[in-house]
Design goal:
Blueprint (H helix, E strand, L loop, with lengths): L21 E12 L2 E8 L6 E2 L2 E2 L7 H13 L1 E3 L6 E10 L8 E15 L11 E5 H7 L3 H9 L1
Helix pairs in contact: 2-3
Length: about 150
């Protein structure tokens, strides 16, 4: 099943079930910096790896709206209002959590989000670090091979 903007996410959950592919959304937040395009990375809460803001779909929101919500909660992103939130690709990764008995596969649909500014206070400010980095460096900093490729192509 391919995810598209406007798709209703009702019915998806974060419950780990054997053999199921779970879906998340991610925000590839970007801006034009002094040395060209930059990407905003955040640290994961548990392992402090560099990742994109991402998470489970929000009930009642489409995929793009869910990605914007994740960008706000995890990184304090205030998007450019005039720029579209556009799908740029999909990557897969194996999700592991201490509280779940088995890892499971995630398909994350990634949306480009042009950033107007960053808030100093946002829901997960005390749980994550965030950093603007050039696109090439961002591709090297993330761990998932599919995400690396997606950022490098961006």
């Amino acid at each position: 099943m391919t995810l598209v903007p406007g798709q209703n996410w009702t019915g998806y959950s974060d419950a780990a079930a054997d053999g199921m592919l779970h879906r998340q959304v991610a925000a590839l937040c970007h801006r034009n910096g002094g040395a060209g395009r930059e990407v905003l990375l955040v640290t994961s809460r548990d392992t402090k790896r560099w990742i994109l803001p991402k998470g489970w779909p929000v009930e009642g929101c489409d995929a793009a709206e869910s990605a914007l919500q994740e960008a706000w909660e995890e990184a304090g992103v205030i998007p450019e209002l005039s720029a579209p939130v556009a799908p740029v690709g999909i990557y897969h990764y194996l999700k592991r959590k201490r509280v779940w008995p088995h890892p499971f596969w995630i398909e994350a649909q990634v949306f480009a989000v042009s950033v107007a500014s960053l808030a100093n206070r946002f829901p997960e400010a005390d749980q994550r670090d965030r950093r603007w980095v050039p696109t090439r460096l961002a591709a090297r900093m993330v761990g998932e091979p599919g995400l690396r490729e997606l950022i490098a192509r961006f």
